[in-house]
Amino acid sequence: MNILKILKKTVIDSQLYVSLMGTLFAVFFMKEQNTFRFPTFALIFITYFSGYLYTKYQYTKHFFKIVIMNAIAGIVCAFLIIHNHNEIRLLKWFIIVVLGLLYNSFFLDVYIRKIPLLKVFYVGLVWALVNCWLTLPEFSIPIFLISFFFITALVLPFDIRDMNSDTVKTFPMLIGIDNTKYIAYTLVFISTIIGIFYLEFQYAFAFFMASIITYILIYFSDNKRDDAYFSFGVETCSALPFLFLVIMEYF
Question: TM segments (predicted)?
Fold first, then answer.
């Protein structure tokens, strides 16, 4: 039990886990498009990690430490882009960072997270832009749609988890847990269908297998479940396409 608590505190609560899961989701599409490069991997991970740290700790006593860390992270990211890419990639990255700040920032009177029902779609939008725009020479509509629908679906179980504590109206509050799950099922289904028609076979199959696991985890989502079910189980779904791809390639 102590090991699980330490693991949760050092890996999950530290935002390392969600950052890695988001990065591996991007890697899946980079490999499919044959654009994978380690500097891009580092760029995405640092961006996610610094963003989630900022969101979590901006109202705490650690705020100034987080600002300093984010400033350093920003310099590192800018260096990675300038050294390995071009000014267009730098502009794309900057826009995505600004979109992240608009999601939840203390200096804004109204930010996205305060707007009822918009949060789930906004998170899907930002993650989709990383996959279909930041890592590619040109905007890919299929990858955007696959990412957008899949990630939006994954945010809904977290709304189910938080429905008794959220101060902003969410889908589970308005239409109930079961109907929220139906929306998530539909979004995953749409994402999978697009993936089957657009992605190369092995990538489409890996995504299909990931979708099956995602369906199961959504089905068993409940606001009485332990937080680890969501922060570890559901969060892992975004990395499943890449993990299934690795299994298929090496085993």
Answer: 12-30, 36-54, 66-84, 90-108, 120-136, 142-161, 182-199, 205-221, 228-248
Residue type, 89: R
Which 8-state DSSP code applies to residue 132?
I
The tokens 């479940």 sit on which residue?
225
Sequence-ordered list of residues with C-beta below 8 angstroms from that of 221, at least 6 positions apart, any chain: 157, 160, 161, 177, 181, 229, 230, 234
Q: Rounded to 10 degrees, what is the CA torsion of 50, 161, 165, 116?
A: 70
Is this structure's pTM higher than 0.85? yes
Grouped pLDDT means (10 residues each) for the chain, 251 residues: 65 85 98 95 96 86 86 94 89 95 80 87 97 95 98 97 90 96 98 97 98 97 90 95 94 77
Sequence-distant (≥ 6) Cβ neighbours of residue 170 within 8 angstroms:
116, 117, 119, 120, 159, 162, 163
For every residue of 176-245, DSSP letters joined together read -HHHHHHHHHHHHHHHHHHHHHHS-HHHHHHHHHHHHHHHHHHHT--TTS-HHIIIIIIHHGGGHHHHHH
30: left (phi over 0), alpha (psi -120 to 50) or beta: alpha
